[in-house]
Amino acid sequence: MSLVVFVLLPGVHLLDLAGPAQVFSTAADFGQPYRIAYVAEHEQVLSAQGLPLIARTRWPQLNGDDLIVVPGWRTRTLGGGPALSDAGSAWLREHHAAGGTVASVCAGAEALGRAGLLDGRRCTTHHDHQDELAARHPHALLVRDVLFTTDDRVVTSAGIASGIDLALHLLAVRHGPALAAQVARDMVVYARRNGHEPQDSAMLRHRSHLDDAVHRVQDLIDARFTEPLPLAHLAAGAGVSERTLTRLFHRATGGLTPLRYQQTLRVEHAEHLIDHGATVESAARQVGFEDARMLRRLRSRTPHTTVREPSGHGPRTDG
After folding, report:
1. 157 and 214: one domain?
2. Are residues 268 and 120 in the same domain?
3. Closest by alpha carbon to 245, among 216, 285, 202?
4. Rg (CA), the chain
5. Is the Cβ–Cβ distance between 126 and 107 less than 8 Å?
6. What angle do CA 222, 180, 160 make, to 5 degrees?
7. Is 236 helix (H, G, I), strand (E, B) or coil?
8. If residue 17 lies in a helix (H) or strand (E), which one and from where to where?
9. Residue 45 bridge partners (DSSP)
10. How many domains does the chain have?
11. What is the C-alpha to C-alpha distance for residues 67 and 50, in angstroms, rounded to an integer?
12. Where is this region: Disordered (predicted)?
């Protein structure tokens, strides 16, 4: 039986806490060996949303299979927010040193930083706190604009809903993607986003609907966006006609066709590759375009699209 311990600090955000807790609770409902516990330095913790929470006040004994999660809290600045005691920080360090995993959501990365667990490791946090986290912990390797990072059993996520993505990722690593998909489906979280996905991505912008057939098609496109995906193949996967799929997709996504949705994913992934040093031509091939002309053409159709070249070239604006 694995214990998942949530460390509650004053002003904890409910969704930072409830999202990951729901993931592991749902996994337990499906027969996985998880127990959930809540620990704090005071028995009652007032959440950022005004709901009082009750927690145990003794740091539990853990083994290497157990997981610690530090949800984020409401704060204008990380330095001005709540902090774990020296004993709490030592407990985090000892668990990691013993082979355990430590995770954070949003501002929770500050608790990991104060415990020394971010030094020399990749990490992230909510975009509002990225600059301050980098300044406060200069030895940390901050990764900007991603949903979550993992580095040597230290897992950090961007904040709020991304804690769900972090928890689903941990399930997939421990038990395989089928369980993570089953839990996501039960929670009506149709897309399990990867850690490298931007905090504002097409999968976020076009997933706020409840059309199950369209979600199934989006799942297929998300997994195979680099491949040719004929409309007939997508329609068969959704169990509807091509004409019906086009109509449903257009309505659910605010005017997109399946092809345009796929192209949007390709462009976003190409941007990510270019940001990490790939040439435009190389990025275009990696995301499924035959050459860079289509990639440039799609960018030119989007107002204010910045084409970022690899290091050594300044940015320019197409269109």
Report:
1. no
2. no
3. 216
4. 21
5. yes
6. 80
7. helix
8. helix 14-29
9. 53
10. 2
11. 27
12. 298-319
Residues comprising the chain, all counted = 319
The reported pLDDT for the residue numbered 125 is 95
Partners of 4 in the beta sheet?
Answer: 36, 67
- On whether the CB atoms of residues 166 and 105 are closer than 8 A, the answer is yes
> 187 lies in a domain?
no
Burial of 38 from C-beta contacts in 10 A (0-12 / 13-18 / 19+): middle
Same domain? 166 vs 303: no
What are the residue numbers of the active site?
A: 106
Domain that holds residue 67: 2-182
Cα separation of 143 and 165, whole Å?
Answer: 16
pTM score above 0.85: no
Selected residue with higher pLDDT from 276 and 88: 88
Residues 139 and 64 in one domain: yes
Q: Scan for tokens 């214990």, then name that residue.
A: 3
- CA angle 158–162–165, rounded 5-degree value: 130
Distance between CA atoms of residues 21 and 203, nearest Å: 23
> Using CA atoms, how far apart are residues 131 and 110, in angstroms rounded to an integer?
12
The band of 277, judged by pLDDT with boundaries at 50, 70 and 90, is: confident
Instruction: Report residue 15 as tokens.
Output: 């969704």
- Are 144 and 215 in a shared domain? no
Best CA proximity match to 151, nearest among 117, 175, 110: 117
CB 193 within 8 A of CB 165: yes
Q: Is 8 exposed, middle or buried (0-12, 13-18, 19+ CB in 10 A)?
A: buried
140-190 tens-digit pLDDT: 999 987 889 999 999 999 978 889 989 998 998 888 777 887 888 788 885
Residue 127 CA to residue 44 CA, distance in Å, equals 29
Quick: pLDDT tens for 91-136.
999 999 999 999 999 999 999 999 999 999 999 999 899 999 999 9
Q: Is 303 left (phi over 0), alpha (psi -120 to 50) or beta?
A: beta
